[in-house]
Structure formats: C-alpha cells, structure tokens
Amino acid sequence: MVKLGIEFLKSCPGPEGLPADGLPEVAFIGRSNVGKSSLINRLAGGRKVARTSSRPGCTQYINIFTTSRKFYIADLPGYGFAKAPEHLRRQWIDWIGWYLRERKPLRGTILLVDARHPGLENDLSMAQYLMEGGKPYIIALTKSDKLKRGKLAASVRVAREMGPVIAVSSVDGSGMNELCKWLADTTAAGISVGS
Ligand code: GDP
Questions:
Q1: Which CATH topology does 7-186 take?
Q2: What CA–CA distance (Å, rounded) separates 46 from 135?
Q3: For a Cys-Cys bond, which of 28, 49, 140, 162 suits 127, CB 3.0-4.6 Å?
C-alpha cells in the first residue's frame, strides 16, 4: 500500500498562515463530496488524517498536510455546494483564485472529478482555469470502483477533454501508484511506491 507519511499541519483562512519554507506544494481541489478527504486518507495509508466532509461548502480554509517526501499537500475547500451563501462563494473565489494563481511553491494541482459525472459545468470551468494558469494539473477520476469497466472507460474519455486523467478509488486503491508517480514527478520529490 502507498504511504506518503501524511500528517495534518494546519488550517489556513488566508495567505499569512501558509508555510513559508518554500517546500513544494500540490493542491487537491474538487466539488464538495467528490472524495477528496477519502483520497488523502488513502494516500496516508488508510489513516484518517483528513476529515471527511460533515458540512460541505461551509469551510473556507486551506488545510495543509506535511508528507515525509518533502512536499506539502494543500487541501482546498470544495466548490459547487448550491446552498453556500453568496458572500462565502465570493470569498472562496478570491482566496482560492489567489492561491492557484499566485502561490509560488505550488507545483501542480489534482482536480478531483466524480467518475459518475465527468462533464459538470463547474469542473469544466475549474479545468479551464487550471489550464490557463499554466502549471501542471491532473484529473483524478474518483470513486472509479462504482462503475463497471465499460462505463468507466467512457467516463475517462469524457474527462480527457479536461486534461490528463487517472482513474482512482479510495476503496480498492486503484490508481494510487500512478497518482504517486505524478506527485513525485511534479514535486521532484522521489516518492517510492510499493509496500
Ligand atoms: P470530500 O467532501 O470531497 O472530502 O468527500 P469525502 O472523502 O468525504 O467522500 C464523500 C463520500 O464519498 C463519502 O461517503 C465517502 O465514503 C465516499 N467515497 C469517497 N471516495 C470513494 C471511493 O473511492 N469509492 C466509493 N465507493 N466511495 C467513496
């Protein structure tokens, strides 16, 4: 099983709290409930380092995790929660937009997209935003265990319109080695996969 030695470091409501030591960062972003916490926990070897969402759309914090591989994981607040009030949505756009565009140590972003719904409008917009930002990003197609092989292949084809795709499952572990390789390449941190 993949283990990245992931530990929660802190929650940051704004730029001042972010790590200042210049280590590379990789951001995880996606709609609320897409499976982001579950994926981070899976990458942590099954330990609950990230809290699975209880109040989707309500937190505006970026959660920072350390890894034993000399890079940080930045868990960005989920988007696409219809009931989030307008002022929170605007705050989200300012804060997360700043982070994705201006944050110097950010080396790349994992955009999580539910394998069962690969072409949703706000995911397409986010992929477009990331593409225009010019930094590496990858689509992690989550909950792939929920689809039969043919349906998953169709979903991967749709998602490829948004960028390079890795189908993942936090339940059966598929895609984890590939995801770790992408993390290693992107952060140049030399992650070894396997047991
Ligand atoms: P977050 O809001 O993006 O952090 O999403 P969570 O990680 O809390 O997951 C939302 C729901 O999807 C939870 O009920 C999880 O158990 C479920 N889930 C997450 N990942 C997977 C997966 O890979 N496979 C399956 N079958 N369910 C998943």
A1: Rossmann fold (3.40.50)
A2: 29
A3: 162
